[in-house]
Design goal:
The protein is about 25% helix and about 30% strand. It has eight helices and 14 strands. The protein has helices at about 35-45, 60-65, 65-75, 85-90, 90-95, 95-100, 170-180, 200-205, and strands at about 1-10, 15-20, 25-30, 50-55, 75-80, 110, 115-120, 120-130, 135-140, 145-150, 155, 155-160, 185-190, 195.
């Protein structure tokens, strides 16, 4: 498998991720937050076939390039069922406040906690981690010991709860009971900043 992080920016820097089967060149694009032309060019240059766009949550900085990429390459996009409000409500996805224009996505497909998203031999399990937003999830690959953690947890930090749908107690529960239940050697690839691992974040969080 090939994992490629592409930092993109509109108002905020965000990590977009390609997760690709190197043999078949099929895979996922996770959180295309901005710079759609850049991401499309990478896909075309590498002859990749992106089967699904996956969203860790519905904030503007994670969804900003979805519409153009989806329309240009005819790729469906997926978000947790609770993400419907974020994609349709600019107050919830914060696009007008931060970007000065509306981002509205009307054609999403929805997944649920525990669903397995697969292509060829790549399999990502959806783990619902509300707290930063009510629709936040991580995508966990048990075979390769990695998880795409969105804005739930970062290297040495956790997601803010001072946004619509944020909840401090939900966030703590998601981190302690859901993310920290994964193996200690699981690498976390967050929506912002550098990667980390479960063991390191448990130590920082005072769990071990």
């Amino acid at each position: 498998m090939l994992l490629k992080c592409v930092p993109v920016k509109d108002v905020l820097d965000v990590n977009s991720y390609f997760y690709i089967n190197e043999k078949t060149k099929r895979g996922f694009l996770i959180d295309p937050g901005a710079e759609p032309n850049t991401l499309i060019e990478i896909i075309k240059t590498n002859n990749w076939i992106i089967e699904k766009i996956l969203l860790t949550h519905g904030h503007f900085d994670h969804i900003g390039a979805v519409e153009k990429i989806s329309a240009t390459l005819n790729i469906p996009y997926f978000i947790h069922l609770n993400g419907a409000r974020y994609l349709l409500d600019c107050d919830f996805n914060l696009s007008v406040i931060y970007c000065g224009h509306e981002i509205v996505l009307k054609d999403a497909n929805y997944f649920h906690d525990g669903d397995i998203l697969s292509t060829d031999d790549l399999k990502l399990r959806v783990i619902h981690t509300p707290g930063h937003t009510s629709d936040s999830v991580i995508f966990y690959d048990a075979d390769n010991n990695i998880a795409f953690s969105g804005d739930t947890i970062f290297r040495g930090a956790v997601g803010t709860v001072d946004v619509p749908g944020g909840d401090r107690e939900f966030l703590r529960h998601s981190i302690v009971n859901r993310i920290f239940s994964l193996p200690d050697n699981t690498i976390l690839y967050p929506g912002h900043s550098e990667s980390t691992d479960i063991f390191t974040e448990k130590k920082r969080y005072g769990i071990i």
